[in-house]
Amino acid sequence: MSDDKKLTLSGKTLGVNKGVETGQVRQSFSHGRTKAVVVERKKKRVLSKSGAPEAAPVNAEVSAPHKPRAYVPKKPSSDADSLTGTEQEARMKALEGAKKRAEEEAKERAAEEARRAAEQAERLKLEAVAKESFDEDAEARKKAEIDAKKKAEDIARKKATAEAETKAAAESTTRQKAEEAARKKTELETRAVQLKKASEARQQTGGDDDDDARRGKSKRKDVKKGAGPGADTAERAGRGRGRGADDRRKGRLTISAATGDGERQRSLAAYKRAQAKKRGLHMQQQPQERQSREITIPEAITVQELAQRMAEKSVAVIKALMGLGIVATINETLDQDTAQLVVEDFGHTAKRISEADVEIGMFGEEDDTADLAPRAPVVTVMGHVDHGKTSLLDALRKANVVSGEAGGITQHIGAYQVTSETGSLITFLDTPGHAAFTQMRARGARATDIVILVVAADDGVMPQTIEAINHSKAAGVPMIVAINKIDREGANPDRVRQELLQHEVVTESFSGDTQEVEVSAKTGAGLDKLREAIALQAEILELKANPNRAAEGVVVEAKLDKGRGPVATVLIQRGTLKVGDIFVAGPEWGRVRALVTDKGEQVTEATPSQPVEVLGANAAPGAGDDFAVVENEARAREITAYRQDQMKKKRQAALATPKTLESIFSQLKESGDQIFFDVVLKADVQGSAEAITQALEKAGNDDIKCRVIHSAVGGITETDIGLTLASNALLIGFNVRPNKQARDMAEADGVTIKYYSIIYNLIDDVKAAMIGELGPEYKENIIGRADIKDAFQAGKSGKAAGCIVTEGSIRNDLKARILRDDVIIYEGQINNLRRFKDDVKKVDSGQECGLTFENYHDFRSGDVLEVYELEEIERKL
Predict the structure, then answer these.
(1) 3-state helix, strand, coil in the chain (%, to 5)
(2) Cβ proximity of 831 and 854 under 8 Å
(3) Distance (Å, rounded) from C-alpha 831 to C-alpha 850?
(4) Is 434 a known ligand-binding residue?
(5) What is the pLDDT of residue 224?
(6) Which end of the chain has fewer CB atoms < 10 Å from its terminal CB, N or C?
(7) How many other CB atoms are there within 10 angstroms of residue 330's CB atom?
(8) What is the per-residue pLDDT across 600-629, written as a single tens digit (0 to 9) for each?
(9) What does each C-alpha distance from 721 to 85, 661, 679, 713, 763 come to in angstroms?
């Protein structure tokens, strides 16, 4: 092999041919738009037998690619045509790579074809399903149309049958209308024929176009002036026939137009309207019967509301009222009697209700005996002040409450629950014994099961003891007499028993039915017997209550706590009170936020006979108010709104001015010169405020009375200072103090605030202030009397009276009065007193004297002279 020869392949130079063919395709779009797109087509490279690569034919089938042939190398013809081993190896690798690529391309094309075939099959399947669904829908629609058509035919047939009778009545009217229409049609046709003949005559006569135009214009004017719309139609018809056009109107072709029937037939809708109108007239001619209803009538109702409840017009109700002689507007308020007359006049039944019916159902019905469970007895300790009620209770519950009470007396009701030695519970209510707390003792008696009447053995029955006995009898509560202080000197229990007999309290010692126990709160003697007596009485009473119901009870005390808000001490009488319950207490309501026992422990529920402090009221209720749990907030608001309205009406009635002259004069006579001592009171609890108010209102006499213009629970505020200034009253704080703003305001305005913690001192000080308001009181003492015998001239000083002293003595330093026929004609001072010619200071009984008076000389014989002195005495209320 020579080195000067070049390496060749079959006489051709080794190179890479271009494997892509390009061309242009023009695409057509809507609206005539086109676009030229360049398209490229790749050619496959195959190797011929000679070893040179050849391009695949352009029209090769994609689905059947050519399989590359195996390369068969030529036998070297000469040394120049022979290849080296390296070249042959490279060529074989290239051929193998080309073969692999061809196989991969074939696989890809086969996968693509399979995917397209699957898509095509899926599309055909969907089309078949859609076609089948469409066919089913079409069949269903067809069936629905047939059913609807049948239904419409049935309805039309029924309507035709129903309307046949009514149509017979309307045939005469329809016939008359048809005759009238036929007559009008005949007239129109005659007029059209005349116009046609005239037109033909003008066409035969001829003439230029201007004349025809003028004649046509005049003809239109004539038609408009004389013939009306029918002639205009005939003219248009004649003009159309003259032009050779057909005489049918352009537009929608109707049956009447096609058949040439010019009469307009009435539509079904018009017929229905006519029938409805007839029915309406018939209904108006025959008024409906009124439907009788039961109308609820409250105590006051407006005319408009009454008309709405009766389903009547307000004008009709006003007319009915005018028939009763009452002129009222639509917003006028009627009373129950008037409203009932109107309701019965309209043929309805009246049902009268009262505003108080809102409280019906607040307290549940009586419990079934099977639902009742035993409960603890509620024991109230009552008696006179300082007879040892609280000390005895302390000994029973082993506590020391007396030290916490101001002055050692109970200022408000205390509620406690203790456990006896046998494990049973007993609820105690400790009531004050002062006379001012009568109402509180009465509340205690109403809320209790057993009353323990404490009487001191050394003091006996006192006024408040008698009141406690009366409260217990009025409430029908059994009583146990505890004769206390038997350890003291002078204690005489038998004396107490005898004094109780005067008030119809017969103890067991005297063969009565009232238990009595001798005890000593100080030494603890007799406490066991007292517990046994309570347990025995409770066993006799068989106290039971239903715990599985809404709670009901009584408010024994209420106060306003600075940190906790309004707090009410409630004694549960039946049911169970739980946290979250909505309750009504008197005129106030709230939701239970917390329940606190007498030991200061928070609990989630309170059972019957258990006293608890309830937090969550919107304001402090009144002591003694009823307490009940209601179903929802709306019910609670409704009840409290009614109660507050009733309280407001009572206050307005009390403050209402008299409307008759008799009442005006009576009020003036009663008031006379009476002075009112005004007081503004703030207390710690509601019970104390009520007790102090009642005690102060009872203080006074015919000359002066105490008037509490404002009484509330809580600390003293700026509002209280302003009210005190405006009314010139005395501001009293009982166990409360003012806040900083109120204190500063009181100092700036000079308002004095009186603070008290003991009710005795408060009432005594108010009485003393009332006495000071009245001023000193004087008593008149008659010193002597004298008869005037004669009046004579006494020089320049005027007339003098000659008298003889009949009683006592006459002194010149005393006040004197002259009586004539027991009527005072002069009251003044003696100017000069003489006996004979001497001036004297005193003339005794039986002696004669002469005297003159300051600036008075109109006395005469027969008058009586009285001399008296004024003695200042201490006022008492």
Answers:
(1) 40, 25, 30
(2) yes
(3) 11
(4) yes
(5) 44
(6) N
(7) 13
(8) 888 998 888 888 989 999 888 887 788 889
(9) 127, 38, 12, 15, 21
Q: Which CATH superfamily is domain 376-542 in?
A: P-loop containing nucleotide triphosphate hydrolases (3.40.50.300)
The torsion angles phi and psi of 723, rounded to 5 degrees, stand at: -65, -40
Residues 381-402: what's their mean pLDDT?
74
Q: Was 790 annotated as part of a binding site?
A: no
User: Is 565 within any annotated ligand binding site?
Assistant: no
Q: Is 186 annotated as a binding residue?
A: no
Q: Is 389 annotated as a binding residue?
A: yes
Does the annotation place 383 within a ligand binding site? yes
The annotation status of 125 as a binding-site residue, yes or no, is no
- Position 822 pLDDT exceeds 80: yes
Give the gyration radius of the chain's Cα atoms.
61
Q: What pLDDT was estimated at residue 692?
A: 86
Predicted confidence at residue 150, as pLDDT, reads 84
What residue type is 123 in one-letter code?
A: R
| Beta-strand relationship, 450-456 and 611-617 | unpaired
Q: Do residues 841 and 812 touch, judged by C-beta distance below 8 A?
A: yes
Does 624 show up as a binding residue in the annotation? no
pLDDT at 786: 92
User: In which residue are the tokens 């258990």 written?
Assistant: 610
Known binding residue 815? Answer is: no
CATH dotted code for 294-353: 1.10.10
Q: Is 390 annotated as a binding residue?
A: yes
Residue 387 annotated as binding site = yes
CB-based contact 380:470 (threshold 8 Å): no
The two domains 294-353 and 777-873 share their CATH topology (first three levels equal): no
**Residue with structure tokens 């010692």?**
509
pLDDT band (50, 70, 90) for residue 204: low
pLDDT (mean) for 712-730: 83
Q: pLDDT confidence of 723, banded at 50, 70, 90? A: confident
Fold of 777-873: Elongation Factor Tu (Ef-tu); domain 3 (2.40.30)
With 0-12 / 13-18 / 19 or more C-beta atoms within 10 angstroms meaning exposed / middle / buried, residue 567 is: buried
Q: Is the pTM of this model over 0.85?
A: no
Please tell me the distance from the alpha carbon of residue 31 to that of residue 42, in angstroms, as a whole number. Answer: 34
431 is in an annotated binding site: yes
What CATH architecture is 357-374+546-647?
Answer: Beta Barrel (2.40)
Q: Pick from 375, 391, 689, 390: which is nearest to 541 by CA?
A: 375
Determine whether the annotation assigns residue 174 to a binding site: no
Do 638 and 566 touch, CB atoms closer than 8 A? no
- The 10s digit of each residue's pLDDT in 688-707 is 888 888 888 887 777 788 88
Domain definitions of the chain by residue range: 18-59, 149-242, 294-353, 357-374+546-647, 376-542, 657-774, 777-873
DSSP state of 728: T
- The interaxial angle of helices 759-774 and 686-698, nearest 10 deg, is 30
Q: Is 484 left (phi over 0), alpha (psi -120 to 50) or beta?
A: beta
HEC string for 372-397: CEECCCEEEEEECCCCCHHHHHHHHH
Rounded Cα–Cα distance for residues 675 and 769 (Å) = 12
Does 158 show up as a binding residue in the annotation?
no
CA nearest to 477, candidates 506, 509, 507, 446: 446
Query: For the domain 657-774, what is the CATH superfamily, name and number?
Result: Translation initiation factor IF- 2, domain 3 (3.40.50.10050)
Question: What single-letter DSSP state applies at residue 288?
Answer: P
* Residue 385 counted as an annotated binding residue: yes
pLDDT-derived band at 671 (thresholds 50, 70, 90) equals low
